[in-house]
Write a structure and sequence with these properties.
The complex is a heterodimer of chains A (68) and B (205).
Chain A (H helix, E strand, L loop, with lengths): L2 E3 L1 H7 L4 H8 L3 H8 L8 H11 L3 H4 E3 L3
Chain B lengths: L1 H38 L2 E9 L7 E3 L9 E3 L3 E9 L2 H33 L6 H35 L7 E2 L6 H27 L3
Antiparallel strand pairs in B: 1-4, 1-5, 2-3
The chains are: A mainly alpha (68), B alpha+beta (205).
Protein name (chain A): Helix-turn-helix transcriptional regulator
InterPro entries (chain A): Cro/C1-type_HTH, Lambda_DNA-bd_dom_sf
Organism (chain A): Mucilaginibacter pankratovii
C-alpha cells in the first residue's frame, strides 16, 4: 500500500507503549496494532485527532505517502 | 425502538411455541399414521373432481331486478374410495409426512436462530445470510412438494378409477411458498450486503 503509517516512530519519540496509547485513546490494542502495521482500511478523523493530541504531532508525521 | 422490540419478542415467543408444538404434532401425526396403517387394510381417500357430464342446471330466483338468468350448475363432485395400504401407498404417505415435517422444522429452526441474533443486536452475520438462504430454499421446496402431492393424487385416481377419463381432477396449486422463497432470497442478499458493509466499517480505526 502507498500509505505508510509511522505510528511506531512517534510512539518511540514519546516513549509510549502500545498498551498505554490504546488506553489513552480508548481503542483496543488489536486495532491500534493493526493501524501501526498499516493493515487497516482507513482511519477516522476523530481517531487521527486523538493520536495527534496524545503524540503531540501532526497527521503528516503519522501518515506518509510513497508511490508504489 | 420499544414497539419493534415488543414485536420481535412476540415473534420469538411464537417461533418457540411453533417449534415445540410442531415436534409434538409431528410425533402425533407419525403415531396416528402408523396406527391407521397397522390396524386398517385401507385408507379413506377423497378428492374433488369436475364432472362435465353433470350438466343439468337448475334455475334460481332473483331477489332484485339487478340480476337475471341465475342458474345452479353442479359441475363439481367428490370421489371417495378406500385405498388399500399397499407398500407403495404406505411409502408415499410416509415420504410426504417426513418431507413436509423436515421442511417445516428446518424453517422454524433457522428462523429461531435468526431472531435470536436480532435479539442480541447482531443481525448482519454470515450465518444469518446462510440461514435466510436455507429458509428460502425450504419455502420454495414446499411448492415442489405440493406439486408432487398433486401428481401422486392424479396418478392414484387415473390408475385406479376407470371413469377418470370422463372427468378432471380439481387441483388448486398455490405458489405462495415459491414467492416467499424468492423474497427471502432477496432479503438474504440484502443481509449479505449489510454484513459486508459492517465488515468494512470494522476495518476502520
Amino acid at each position: 500500500m502507498a500509505i505508510i503509517v509511522n505510528l511506531d516512530v512517534e510512539m518511540a519519540k514519546n516513549k509510549m507503549s502500545l498498551k498505554e496509547l490504546a488506553e489513552r485513546l480508548d481503542i483496543s490494542m488489536t486495532n491500534l496494532s493493526l493501524l501501526k502495521t498499516g493493515k487497516v482500511k482507513g482511519v477516522r478523523f476523530d481517531t487521527l485527532e486523538a493520536l495527534c493530541k496524545e503524540l503531540n504531532c501532526k497527521p503528516g508525521d503519522i501518515l506518509d505517502y510513497r508511490a508504489d | 425502538m420499544k414497539t419493534a422490540s415488543w414485536l420481535l419478542t412476540t415473534i420469538r415467543v411464537l417461533l418457540n411455541v411453533f417449534w415445540y408444538g410442531n415436534m409434538v404434532l409431528a410425533v402425533f401425526a407419525f403415531c396416528v399414521l402408523t396406527w391407521k396403517i397397522s390396524t386398517d387394510h385401507y385408507t379413506e381417500f377423497s378428492n374433488p373432481v369436475k364432472y362435465p357430464q353433470i350438466t343439468k342446471s337448475s334455475p334460481l330466483t332473483a331477489l332484485t331486478p339487478d340480476v337475471s338468468n341465475i342458474t345452479l350448475t353442479p359441475d363439481q363432485a367428490t370421489i371417495k374410495m378406500h385405498l388399500n395400504n399397499t407398500l407403495s401407498h404406505v411409502a408415499t404417505a410416509y415420504f410426504f409426512l417426513f418431507a413436509f415435517e423436515a421442511l417445516v422444522m428446518s424453517i422454524i429452526y433457522q428462523l429461531r436462530k435468526f431472531f435470536n441474533t436480532i435479539k442480541h443486536n447482531a443481525p448482519f452475520t454470515y450465518e444469518n445470510v446462510r440461514r435466510l438462504k436455507i429458509t428460502a430454499l425450504c419455502f420454495a421446496l414446499t411448492t415442489v412438494l405440493s406439486i408432487l402431492l398433486g401428481i401422486s393424487t392424479a396418478v392414484i385416481l387415473k390408475t385406479n378409477v376407470k371413469e377418470m377419463s370422463l372427468m378432471n381432477m380439481v387441483w388448486e396449486q398455490s405458489f405462495t411458498g415459491l414467492i416467499l422463497g424468492a423474497m427471502l432470497y432477496i432479503l438474504a442478499d440484502i443481509f449479505k450486503h449489510g454484513f459486508e458493509l459492517k465488515k468494512e466499517i470494522g476495518e476502520f480505526v
